[in-house]
Amino acid sequence: MIVHILLSFLFILLITALLFFIFLFFIPSLKDQNVNTSSLVFSRLEENVLTGIKEPEMEKARYIAVIKTKKTADTQNFIYKGIQDCSIYFETFEKGGIYSSSCIGFGSCIKSCSRNAIIIRNNMAEITPFCDGCGECLSSCPKKLISLVDRNKISEETSNNRGKLFKLLLKCYKILGQDRA
């Protein structure tokens, strides 16, 4: 019983000494050496969202990046085990006669985006609402699938498409409703 109490006390003392060392010596010495001690888990943009800091350039962005892709990539019919880089992939396989006009999802554009506004979903690059239209990603795509488009035109096209869909559904409803009468 006394041994358990003594071991528990020593364990607590060891943990206290470790925390004391980390917070009193280790972290201040890293800051003195100009080592980045910010979160390695969250990006700068995610940290700003979590802390409630609003970035003004997001509201002022006139352009947004758009990726011209097909629903499914035509390069997924074979296995590629090389370096996961779009430029290397296209250089290798276009010389071999395999041509692709869609995104392959290796994420070279992600590495070039400082806003972390590009994600890979279903093996295809996708622009998120965090895009501010800076254009850093344009040169990273070897097939030039990324372009900048006026943000207002995107919202107009989306609303026009919704209107067309609503009219189509309304016509279908009327046709199906007449059959029941």
Report on this model:
- By secondary structure, the chain is mainly α.
- It contains six helices and four strands; from the N terminus they run H-H-H-E-H-H-E-E-E-H.
- It has a domain at 58-152: Alpha-Beta Plaits (2-Layer Sandwich).
- The protein has a two-stranded antiparallel ribbon with strand order 1-4.
- The chain is elongated.
- Residues 56-60 have low confidence and may be disordered.
- The chain crosses the membrane at residues 6-27.
- InterPro entries: 4Fe4S_Fe-S-bd, 4Fe4S_Fe_S_CS.
- GO terms for molecular function: iron-sulfur cluster binding; metal ion binding.
How are the SSEs ordered, and which strands pair?
Layout: H1 2-32, H2 44-51, H3 56-60, E1 63-67, H4 86-95, H5 108-112, E2 118-121, E3 124-127, E4 146-150, H6 151-180
Antiparallel strand pairs: 1-4, 2-3
Keywords:
181 residues, Alpha-Beta Plaits, 4 strands, 49% helix
Assign the CATH architecture of one domain: 2-Layer Sandwich
Give the neighbour order of strands across the main sheet.
1-4
What portion of residues belong to β-strands? 5-15%
Computed over alpha carbons, the radius of gyration is 27 Å
Roughly what is the average pLDDT, rounded to an integer? 73
Oligomer: single chain
